Amino acid sequence: MNHPILAQIVPQVAALSDRADKMKMVSKLSTLSIDKSASKIQQAFRKHQARLKLKKQAAWQIHEKLEYSSEQTEAKLKDMFEKLIKASGTLSPSVTKLLHKAGLPVEEKELLRLTNPENIRVEPTYRGPRIEGPITRKVFVDLIEAFQRGQVLHEKYVCEILHQARTILKTIPNFNHVDLSNLRHVFIVGDLHGQLADLLHIFNSNGLPSTDNAYIFNGDFVDRGRNSVEVILLLMVALILYPSSVFLNRGNHEDIMVTVRYGFHNEINHKYRTRKAPLVDLFKDIFSWLPLYSYVDAGKNKIIVMHGGISDKINLKRLNSLARNRYVSIEVPPESKSGGKRLTEEEENEYHQIQDLFWSDPDPRGRRGCRKNDDRKMACFFGADVTQQFLKKYNLSMIIRSHQVKQDGYEYNHGGKVLTVFSASNYCGGSNWGAVVRWDYNEEEPWIISFKTQGVEMEKMSFSKQVTLFEDPAYHSLMEKVMTNKTALLKEFTKADTKKDDHLPLTTWADIMSDVLQVDLPWLILRAKLVQEDADGVLYRSMFNDYILDNPKFQMSNTGIMEDLYMWKDMLLALFNLIDYNHSGFISRNEFADVIKLILYGENGSGDVNDAYVEELTSAMDFDRNGKIDFNEFLESFRIVNVKKPQQINEKSKGRNKSGSINGVIVEHKIRV
């Protein structure tokens, strides 16, 4: 029997059911489509991340290699000084005196007379922090707050701090003994390099130094950063307040010859113009009294902490007994105790041990034994077998060292027996993390605290911007190296260009770059940033199209001489500051001629120097024709200029902190490895 109402409802339900099935099908198809789209997005993102990682690794490799190549000047100076001192009988008396002066300790009475804080007047116009009475914890905090505001401490109080710290340092043995059975824990801080923001973050995050909050600062307090004076002053105040729980190790940058080239020397000149010479001498003396390393008794573990590393020559017994203040500079050998011009064999061995302690690195290729450090041209690379033998000989568990910037702020080597810690984040415009090690009594392993401080918020930037920020300082340094070797590069390029069509095979171009610049970089990866290429190969002349060596004050048609001067600028600066003993900023033409002769003598290894060439250089440097050379003016105006102006960076993207206060912390994480 047919029901009229059912006859109407059933078709409608059937229609609805059919529509629902279609909707389910559409839903399934939509889900499949979304899944495929999500998968494609994920794949694209992973590929993008992988490309970004490769870019960062390439930029990081450039940064490391260029950092090391810039330090090769230290090795050249050291080798040159050694040669010259051994051959000082053939040099003029004034030059011989100059060479020996670099390695001599400061004369005690003269130092005390020139830097006695009681004889230094504070001007009525001075509005910075003051030290009235004993140095207390309140003074420490007041100084931190003043330095945060960008204030500069008066030289009277600088001398007061340094003399008190110097008195303590002179009583400390060659190594710090850190006993955690009493202290319970210790924080180990790596290179700070004048980066006040990083030091203040470390204090803020982990607590100020105190009798129950110990710190080891593992060298390289100064250079590179703009607040080296403030960093080292805070460390010295901490030492004065807590000499039994604050420990300072000397680094390779606590060397007045090194600071001439890497910023600390200029910072003193800028902040203390009226008393720069005595302050330089006072810092020079304090550097020589810093302990060489620290020994940490952590209960279950015994740890040695030094700035650089070890070698198969290191003898702790010998290091513990030597007169460390003889080593005013590691670049210039001290005078022999025998009175002779040359060091005895025993003294030579001691000198090289000091170099290894401050300058060595774990072998980057995992090789055994000790070999010449090809990157720095100073000290050695040491292998895992050398580490194992050293630890066994001295009943140690681990080596903690610094000296090398690491992308994460730390790195383990040699099966976890060597730990590198570097505490200057975003070092030299890079994007590395800083790190601090905390070791607690009777713990098997340390805590590692990584952090990053800066004004630019890296996480909010585009991927390309992150890489650009990181690459720029290294790329500029690389172009500087290319342009100062332009003549030598073109000579080799044209020699290899057998077709004379301004083209070279890619591998030939890369080999010449490595050979001439003496830097082992991934040239094939870098070629897009450096040179043009087409189907016939690399257009090698295009590498020099965008940049020129420029100095408006230096009128010289001979570009080869321009390149020579710029190539030697670090060595010239070091020697200039030796001759300019009163730090006036000027030396005579004759003195500058002696400097050029020293460099040529050091390179040639003989006294055969082209006097006409020396005269041409000296004449070109005497800008005002007054018989004086203002070398600092020359350096300030000597630039590698980009002919094509780079795009302007938006002011906001620079991340500048216009108040001048210390930049904020982006992020920190704590791990146990």
UniProtKB/TrEMBL annotation:
PROSITE patterns: EF_HAND_1, EF_HAND_2, IQ, SER_THR_PHOSPHATASE. Its EC number is 3.1.3.16. GO terms for biological process: detection of stimulus involved in sensory perception. It catalyses: O-phospho-L-seryl-[protein] + H2O = L-seryl-[protein] + phosphate; O-phospho-L-threonyl-[protein] + H2O = L-threonyl-[protein] + phosphate. Residues 567-602, 609-644 form the EF-hand domain. It is an enzyme of class 3 (hydrolase). Its cofactor is Mn(2+). The keyword Metal-binding applies. Gene3D superfamilies: 3.60.21.10, EF-hand. Transmembrane segments: none annotated. Pfam families: EF-hand_7, Metallophos, PPP5. One of its GO terms (molecular function) is manganese ion binding. Keywords: Calcium, Hydrolase, Manganese, Metal-binding, Repeat. Belongs to the PPP phosphatase family. This is Serine/threonine-protein phosphatase with EF-hands.
